[in-house]
Design the sequence.
């Protein structure tokens, strides 16, 4: 299934923008904001259980999507590392009424899962091969990156319309 990112970018242009200063929290663990925030510019950190799992600076990265889709509180904190602009949308409205936005989020999540599955298989193979803890630690960092909100939404496949 091909994703029309140009159409999604046009939809984003109609959404309000919010600016966060460096150090401000965009989303709080345990909160239920009911919104999706889509990075326009800047850089954020994603922190779960006091562990930073990602730094994201990729325009178009979506935050709050799991909370919205699963109807549960946010599972991680998102902090602005530098001044950052976000398109902000009511998650329920956008995902229920806009098939382009829903497809965009679904494709981003599906790609993230596919890459994470590949990395998990690679990690399992490394453990079975008896690789060092250092090498296994590197693979775990790779998996964290693959599961971050920015990866792999910018792949060439997404740019096709």
Sequence:
């Amino acid at each position: 299934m091909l994703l029309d990112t140009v159409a999604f970018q046009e939809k984003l242009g109609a959404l309000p923008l919010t600016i966060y200063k460096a150090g401000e929290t965009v989303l709080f663990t345990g909160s239920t904001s009911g919104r999706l925030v889509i990075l326009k510019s800047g850089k954020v950190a994603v922190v779960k259980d006091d562990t930073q799992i990602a730094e994201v600076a990729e325009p178009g990265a979506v935050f709050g999507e799991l909370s919205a889709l699963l109807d549960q509180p946010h599972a991680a904190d998102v902090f602005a590392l530098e001044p950052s602009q976000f398109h902000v949308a009511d998650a329920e409205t956008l995902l229920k009424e806009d098939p382009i936005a829903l497809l965009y989020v679904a494709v981003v999540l599906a790609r993230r899962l596919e890459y994470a599955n590949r990395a998990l298989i690679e990690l399992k193979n490394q453990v079975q091969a008896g690789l060092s803890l250092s090498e296994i630690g590197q693979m775990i960092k790779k998996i964290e990156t693959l599961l971050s909100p920015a990866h792999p939404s910018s792949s060439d496949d997404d740019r096709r319309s």
Q: What stands out?
A: DSSP finds five helices and eight strands in the chain. Residues 5-159 form a domain with the Jelly Rolls fold (CATH 2.60.120.10).
